[in-house]
């Protein structure tokens, strides 16, 4: 019922997120595909999870979020994360999932637990995008600042850094005007805004302004 209810008021496809493969399939069954291709969250490098979700992915031809973790947990280095990403990309493309429909999550871990965690994520993003430019990168961005003061500041800076490494999408607070303005500006500076048209339009709509402390 939730998928139907949400799609009554939005014109975009949904990301269906559940640890339960059966619930994901139920969501896909009622998803309005006229509004676009559904995205499911998520598959991992764990054999059990691959075996459970792959038939559903094949059946519905949906887009997929793939986490760079496996039976060993979340790797503490970019090399192993990239290896898991390569494995998942092969598994998915072998059953017909286009590269553009694969969303790799490099896994953002708080820098409060290891001050190299930000660099590990960025190195993972760069390596995957260099090898597979068509593959999308999505992150749970705000995890980076967990447990630290002034979390919004850390999130905003990390947003720009990861975008520069090739990140395509992030789970962020869309009501954070400063974050949205920074994201729009970074998109323009990264050469992804033809003749700065989107930046200028955002300025006209007063989306680049925010209250200053």
UniProtKB/TrEMBL annotation:
Pfam families (UniProt xref): Pterin_bind
Any single GO BP term: homocysteine metabolic process
Protein name: Pterin-binding domain-containing protein
NCBIfam families: PRK07535.1 (NF005719)
Gene3D superfamilies in alphabetical order: Dihydropteroate synthase-like (3.20.20.20)
Domain annotation Pterin-binding: ranges: 1-190
GO CC, alphabetical: cytosol
Annotated family: Belongs to the vitamin-B12 dependent methionine synthase family.
Swiss-Prot/TrEMBL keywords: Cobalamin, Cobalt, Metal-binding, Methyltransferase, Transferase
Database matches in InterPro entries: Dihydropteroate_synth-like_sf, Met_Synthase/Corrinoid, Pterin-binding_dom
